[in-house]
Design brief:
Layout: E1 2-3, E2 6-12, E3 19-23, E4 28-32, H1 35-41, E5 46-52, E6 56-59, E7 63-65, E8 68-70, E9 77-82, E10 87-91, E11 106-108, E12 124-125, H2 131-134
Length: 147
């Protein structure tokens, strides 16, 4: 969906009680293989994208655990909001339309990636958290160089 010339994406939980909209394009897109992401998704990795805080809006009641927002009715994990960092991390699986145009540019916690799952070609690889997660540096707008 387009709002003027700005792309608008929407998404929500499985039961429809929580809805959200994202204006514009994400700052970055990634995959995470860490133990936390594996457990909260029930999968072997999490696909996510980071949008600027001001680009995100939501309706409906959510609950939060360890910074992760979910629907209290159906349990769908939706987003992690970090207002202090000016970011909204969206779980790509809860977008209404398949995110075919949002290719990951980096992978996190590759030391936990399944041996049968190859590295995503052309992406930056991080053994654990990169410096911008641990506070050592600012996040690049589009990380493409191996670190």
């Amino acid at each position: 969906m387009q709002a003027g010339s700005e792309r608008v994406r929407s998404g929500g939980c499985s039961c429809g009680a929580v809805r959200f909209r994202l204006r514009g394009e994400p700052i970055r897109v990634g995959l995470c293989h860490c133990a936390d992401c594996r457990k909260v998704t029930g999968s072997v990795f999490l696909a996510f994208a980071i949008w600027p805080w001001a680009s995100f809006e939501s309706t409906g009641e959510t609950r939060c655990w360890e910074g992760r927002s979910f629907c209290p009715t159906c349990g769908s994990r939706l987003f992690s909001l970090r207002e202090d960092q000016g970011e909204a991390e969206i779980k790509l699986g809860c977008l209404d339309e398949a995110p075919v145009d949002l290719a990951p540019t980096y992978e996190l916690w590759i030391k936990r990636r399944e041996r049968w799952l190859p590295a995503l070609a052309g992406t930056e690889q991080h053994v654990e958290d990169p410096p911008w997660v641990t506070g050592g540096a600012s996040a690049p707008a589009n990380p493409v160089d191996p670190g």
